[in-house]
């Protein structure tokens, strides 16, 4: 997909403006992405991102991962993300797919890692999404699910309120996700920082000491 230099520059200006607004309210987008990435790496092999959004985290990922397949339901958001990647020009390449995370168009074990940042609170059927992630990730792979914590969500809601809008969200509990993964033989660790919660899940090997919990 070809974009004009003007489109790319205008899109980047909008992104910087939005990031500045969020930072004034207390959420640093770049620090959040870096924190999530610090918990996610290394990401080897075939990587799937759930929830492209505007491509903020995707651009961060592609500094370290050679190829990422990214899915989103919103074509307009993915266009914004494509423009963002066109401006950033990261080393890695992205493959953009319009798809529902609750019904992914890939066979079992199609990916070595699955990642997602700040998309979970937009998903209506998170248990079904979790099952899809478990289906498409390889047995020896990893799942990294990050979302805004309550402070981060409150910031987003205040920004939207100031703009005369609402921020729809589905309420869920990371502990329920941990239980869901545990039932399928996966162990999880939670990390907190920079307005983010990060769940790292790996298949539990026999005799492993990787335990569910916080750090």
Largest sheet: 8 strands, mixed
Structural class: alpha/beta
How much of the sequence lies in strands comes to 15-25%
CATH topology name: Rossmann fold
Topology pattern, helix = H, strand = E: HHEHEHEEHEHHEEE
What's the level 1 CATH class? Alpha Beta
Q: For the terminal residues, how far apart are their CA atoms?
A: 42 Å
CATH level 4 superfamily: Vaccinia Virus protein VP39
Average pLDDT reading: 95
Backbone CA Rg: 17 Å
How would you write the strand order of the largest sheet?
Answer: 3-2-1-4-5-7-6-8
Helix content: 40-55%
CATH architecture: 3-Layer(aba) Sandwich
- Low-confidence segments: none
Number of strands: 8
For the record, the count of structural domains works out to 1
- Tell me the number of helical segments per DSSP (H or I, 4 or more residues long): 7
What form results from the Cα inertia axes?
globular
Blueprint of the fold:
Blueprint: H1 5-25, H2 29-40, E1 47-50, H3 56-61, E2 67-72, H4 75-88, E3 93-98, E4 111-117, H5 126-136, E5 137-148, H6 150-162, H7 174-183, E6 186-193, E7 196-203, E8 213-214
Parallel strand pairs: 1-2, 1-4, 2-3, 4-5, 6-8
Antiparallel strand pairs: 5-7, 6-7
Helix pairs in contact: 1-4
Q: Mind explaining what this structure looks like?
A:
The chain has 215 residues and is α/β, with parallel strands linked by helices. 40% of the residues lie in helices and 25% in strands. Strand 2, helix 4 (75-88) and strand 3 (93-98) form a beta-alpha-beta unit.
Which descriptors apply to this entry?
215 residues; alpha/beta; 8-stranded mixed sheet; 8 strands; 25% strand
């Amino acid at each position: 997909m070809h974009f004009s230099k003007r489109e790319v520059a205008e899109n980047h200006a909008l992104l910087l403006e939005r990031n500045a607004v969020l930072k004034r309210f207390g959420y640093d987008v770049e620090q959040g992405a870096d924190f999530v990435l610090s918990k996610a790496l290394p990401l080897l092999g075939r990587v799937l991102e759930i929830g492209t959004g505007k491509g903020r985290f995707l651009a961060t990922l592609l500094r370290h991962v050679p190829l990422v397949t990214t899915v989103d339901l919103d074509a307009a958001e993915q266009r914004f993300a494509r423009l963002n990647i066109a401006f950033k020009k990261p080393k890695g390449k992205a493959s953009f797919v319009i798809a529902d995370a609750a019904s992914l168009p890939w066979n079992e074990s199609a990916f070595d890692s699955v990642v997602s940042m700040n998309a979970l609170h937009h998903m209506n059927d998170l248990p079904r999404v979790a099952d899809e992630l478990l289906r498409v990730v390889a047995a020896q792979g990893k799942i990294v699910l990050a979302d805004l914590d309550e402070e981060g969500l409150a910031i987003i809601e205040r920004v939207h309120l100031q703009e005369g809008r609402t921020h729809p969200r589905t309420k869920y509990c990371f502990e329920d996700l941990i239980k869901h993964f545990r039932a399928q033989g996966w162990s999880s660790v939670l990390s907190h920082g920079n307005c983010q919660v990060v769940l790292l899940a790996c298949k539990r090997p026999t005799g492993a000491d990787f335990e569910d919990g916080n750090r």
